[in-house]
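INTERNAL AUDIT FORM
Audit reference: QA-55
Scope: verify that the stored structure record matches its stored sequence.
Auditor: D.O.
Record contents follow.
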Amino acid sequence: MKIEGTDFQKAVWKEVRKIPYGEVRTYGWIARMVGTSPRAVGMAMRRNHLPIYIPCHRVVAKRGIGGFSPGSEWKIFLLELEGAVI
């Protein structure tokens, strides 16, 4: 599968793919792993066209669940399905 995006987006997405099933990480945590800001991580996540393969629903805000392009209802559903604790 060829994933299209900038080198930066691919670095963010690669880090997100490491998040285990049923666990979450914050935008800030991902930002520290790739050497950027939480806002930049959010922008890269917004460009993710494969939201299950690159499980951006596992990335949450410092306070709250954060965004998810298919909608917050889907993000909550997927996190609950995985048994993630927010």
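Auditor finding: record pair retrieved intact. The chain has a mean pLDDT of 94.
Action required: none
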